[in-house]
Amino acid sequence: MTSNHTIRLYALAASLLALFLTWAAISAHPWRSAAGVKATDARLVALGQREQLLRRDMALVQRIATHAGVAARRSQPVALRTAAAIAPVAAPAPVAAPAVRVVTLPPLVITRTS
User: Residue 59 to residues 28, 47, 105: CA-CA distances in angstroms?
Assistant: First the structure.
């Protein structure tokens, strides 16, 4: 014959399983329609439009910078353009190490009683 403790443990396990399954089902929101889930926030729409505007502006600036760079190179004499292309890269100037300061501070002693 089965003991009462075993039956109680099975009942407890079954009730916990039912609790968590119900919790999962409610948190999934099965009653919402698909259109309600797809609804977008107005702030997200505005953010997307702002991103598109910034990308357009960035492309325009890139085109202007490229055009200005080409015009500046065309205005240089040919000798300067070829010399700049052939000139070796100069080594960076040596950087002096920062001066080190030694600071002596009194010891930190806290003598408080609570």
Answer: 43, 18, 56
